[in-house]
Design a protein that fits this description.
The complex is a heterodimer of chains A (about 110) and B (about 120). With about 110 residues, chain A is mostly beta strands. Chain A has no helices and nine strands. Chain A is globular and about 40 Å long. Chain A starts with 8 loop residues before the first strand and ends with a strand. In chain B, the strands form two sheets. In chain B, strands 2, 4, 5, 6, 9, 10 and 11 form a seven-stranded mixed sheet that branches. Chain B starts with a strand and ends with a strand. Classes of the chains: A mainly beta (about 110), B mainly beta (about 120).
Chain lengths: ~110, ~120
């Protein structure tokens, strides 16, 4: 079965750029999306179709997808961005989620 | 404005069947391309996709749970129902339903409902 691999944790200083990766076989051939989940809350879509931002998502969130890796980039990271982030893709019908990355803003 | 809300029992016994209902508003499941999915999250763990149903009654299931899951829709009631048989303590999780369009992201999620499996 298809798998998406994320680093368990990423740390970033306020104002710096955070990058969270998601790896999967030929992931670049599929659309990837990203969700943000804060404690006790439902996931929120922050990037879809590799690099598009839903309405209301700040411009500091961006995404890319090529080869075997999709990347979520948060520029000028703020304390409010501290959360768990999950990537997701479709693999010939089934939906697949990554294992999640805890972003800590130190 | 699209909203979804999950409902169902908070506690089920091992071996029982779980039935969850997703009641939604702001869209119709008879509109081409529209779908509703179910995703769960055990405490402290990652999201896990369970099932998905589309406007045309196309149904998709997680390969690892397919034998235990059934997803149905009632377009007139704006509801999607998920049943999971033979519940086990490892199925303890928050269960979410979410809106999607064909092979795209889950753009709107419900608040989730916590289900505990215990005797």
């Amino acid at each position: 079965s298809y798998e998406l691999t994320q680093p368990p944790s990423v740390s970033v200083s306020p104002g710096q750029t955070a990058s969270i990766t998601c790896s999967g076989d030929k992931l670049g051939d599929k659309y990837a999306c990203w969700y943000q989940q804060k404690p006790g809350q439902s996931p929120v879509l922050v990037i879809y179709q590799d690099s598009k931002r839903p309405s209301g998502i700040p411009e500091r969130f961006s995404g890319s997808n090529s080869g075997n890796t999709a990347t979520l980039t948060i520029s000028g990271t703020q304390a409010m961005d501290e959360a768990d982030y999950y990537c997701q893709a479709w693999d010939s019908r089934p939906v697949v989620f990554g294992g999640g990355t805890k972003l800590t803003v130190l | 404005q699209i909203t979804l809300k999950e409902s169902g029992p908070t506690l089920v016994k091992p071996t029982q069947t779980l039935t969850l209902t997703c009641t939604f508003s702001g869209f119709s499941l008879s509109t081409s391309g529209v779908g509703v999915g179910w995703i769960r999250q055990p405490p402290g763990k990652a999201l896990e996709w369970l099932a998905l149903i589309y406007w045309n009654d196309d149904k998709r299931y997680s390969p690892s749970l397919k034998s235990r899951l059934t997803i149905t829709k009632d377009t007139s009631k704006n509801q999607v129902v998920l049943t999971m048989t033979n519940m086990d303590p490892v199925d303890t999780a928050t269960y979410y339903c979410a809106h999607t369009v064909v092979e795209d992201a889950f753009d709107i999620w419900g608040q989730g409902t916590m289900v505990t499996v215990s005797s």
